[in-house]
Design goal:
Length: about 90
């Protein structure tokens, strides 16, 4: 998807000669990687705060049981995975 954004930013005539990072800065656009992480964090927020139906989201995220550390109560635990494919999935804690 990053390649699609690279091509799209080259369509702006005045920015064609700039490198990709400079084009993003001029257009005030984040990278696709950043946008994907941002989308994942929005989904985590919605799941944790009950915006989605709890019956559907039950068991997707696991909260940490350790209450001895400071901070908020919404700390997540990393779920283990046998397959490399699942390790890189949104729901596996990466």
């Amino acid at each position: 998807m990053e390649n699609v954004q690279k091509r799209a930013t080259k369509q702006v005539r005045s920015l064609r000669r700039l490198n990709y990072k400079q084009r993003l800065i001029k257009l005030n656009l984040p990278t696709m990687k950043y946008r994907c992480h941002q989308g994942d964090m929005i989904e985590v927020f919605k799941i944790l705060h009950g915006i989605y139906d709890r019956d559907i989201t039950e068991g997707i995220l696991q909260l940490a049981q350790n209450t001895r550390t400071r901070g908020h109560s919404l700390k997540l635990t990393t779920q283990s995975s046998r397959l490399e494919l699942r390790r890189n999935c949104f729901l596996s804690g990466s």
